[in-house]
Structures are given as structure tokens and as C-alpha cells.
Amino acid sequence: MLLVAGCGNAAVAPSKGELVDPPKAGGAKEGQSANGQTNGQTSSVAAPQATPQAKATVYPLKVKDATGKEFIFDKAPSRIISVSPSETEMLFALELGDRIVGVSDFCDYPAEALKKPKMGSIVKPNEESLLAANADVVVAGISMKTPAVEQLRSLKVNVFKVEPKTIDDVLASLLMFGQIFDKQEQAEKVVAEMKADRQKVADAVKGLLPEQKKRVLLEFSPGWSVGKGEFMDELITSAGGINIYGDSTSYSQLNEEMVIAANPQVIIYPNNLIDDKSKKTIDQIIKERSGWGAIDAVKNNRVVGVNNDWISRPGPRMTKGLVDIAKGIYPELVK
Known about the structure:
Elements: E1 2-4, E2 18-19, E3 33-38, E4 41-46, E5 61-64, E6 70-73, E7 80-82, H1 85-93, E8 100-103, H2 127-133, E9 137-140, H3 146-154, E10 158-161, H4 167-180, H5 184-205, E11 215-218, E12 224-226, H6 231-238, E13 242-243, E14 251-253, H7 256-262, E15 266-270, H8 282-288, H9 296-299, E16 303-306, H10 308-312, H11 318-329
Parallel strand pairs: 1-10, 7-8, 7-9, 9-10, 11-13, 11-15, 15-16
Antiparallel strand pairs: 2-5, 3-4, 5-6, 12-14
Helix pairs in contact: 4-5, 5-11
């Protein structure tokens, strides 16, 4: 049984997962032209081209996970469990739905994921359910910490952990999963689509002068924002914004006086997220805060909602979140 937890890629550091011995892939064969003589005339006739072969992973394949453990795949895993919503989205994007035999309680996209057997939480999955599912591979993401991974391994469950922290990490994970599961062409297709989204935004905001860049607050959960070193900060800066929490690291509780002083010109928040205590949406909470009516974003009605999953999950839809954020900051530039 092989459990995969997280993301990895040949181009990233061992802490994030890497291909130890990158496999060779089959390629298309080139057709050859042939010359023939007919009634004294010379004609050039192209020989039929061979049908291009799909890229195929060569096994055995050696891969290291984010914990530094080396795995050897003798063939493409046929029974997969994912206990992380981001990685579940990656696997479905690679058209592996027919091989997935279990997901976490929080895996809700695509709709097909809702029909899969549930394996418990993303932090500490149900051990009995995992063992009973008899999976070749279980994928878990950044939320599963090393002690939980080692506990599962002590039960002879081979957990492969990955930790995507940037867009490039996600692209790398997709390509690595394409190698592991022999879905290289589909992985390259998804990666190309994500790169196109990122390039669309980069092209739209590349002409901004420093003084034209807008100050942005991203309140991803009631009372919480994010600093550098996290992918949500990358979404803001890649969209041409200046994160007012960019001088902090990781996740930060909001300091309301600091936010008022920073005076963000745009506030981004996740749509349809309800505060457990007040039962209000984040935009309602923002507009009702004392003194926040003087903030440019509130005063000028630039409090912008975006899809929560797109900005909170480091998966194949995160570049759609990037486009959404860029539209929210610069609607005149990003169409």
C-alpha cells in the first residue's frame, strides 16, 4: 500500500518532493520522405507518418516526498486515496477519478469527489478506513504534519507527503503526479492552462508604475490576513497588488488600527464564507467595523468577493483565483 501526502516535483527542493530518477517518456516517431521515378519524372512522396505515441512513464520510478523518504513505484498505482482537497483536485484534473477509492471529509470538488468513500480529516485521517481501503497510494497535502505521517507509516501505510507553497510548486506537483500515475500528457495540459492564466495576468499588469500599484488587504477568514511566504500573498503580488501585510510572515490576525493606517485601496475577501460567531459574511463584518468607513476600499466600494476555494486551495484552480484577484484590483486592465 502506498499513501501519497502532498506535492512534489523534479524541479523543487527535496523538502517539497522530487523525482529521484526522472523516467524517460515515449515520443512520436517522425515520418520519412521517399523519392520515386515515374515515366522519367521525379516526384517526392511523403511516407505515412507513424501515429504519435502518448508519453509513457518508465517504471520503476524513484520519487522522494516532502519528508525526504524515497519511494519506488514499480507501476502506475491503480487504487488511490487523497486526504487533501487540493491534491484531490489535482488527481481529478489528471483524469484519475476511476482510480480514486477514498477522499477526506472536506474534499468536495469536483462533484464526483462527493461520491467517494470518506477517510476522515485532512490533519489526522481515520486509520481504520485507510487500512480497509487497501490503497496503493494515498495523497495528502500540507495540512498533514510529519508526526501524523510517521504514525501512519508505523502501521505499514506508505505515506507520500507534499507541501505546495507557491504556484510553481503546484505546477511541479501536477507534473510529478503525471509521472507517478502515468498521466504525463494530461498533466502537461493542465499546467499549460495554469501558465496561460498566470501569463494573462502578468501581461495585463506589467505596465504598472510603482506609484500605480494598489494597496490590498486580503481577509481570507474573519479577522485574518496573510503575509509573505504563503501562496495567497503570491496571488496578491502576482496580480500587481501591494499586500499591506507583506512585511509580516505566514498568517496574521488583523490589527484594525494598522489596517486603517495602511488604508488599503482594495479589500479582497472570499465569497459565501460565513463567520461562525456572528453568522455574517465577511464583507458585512468589514463594512460594520468602527472607523473602517474612512478606508479607501470601503469608501469607494472596492470590497471585492472572490471564489473561496480558488484562493484557499493550492491546486489546479488557484490561477483562476489569481485572475479573479487581478480583476478585483484592476478591473480596467484584466478582462
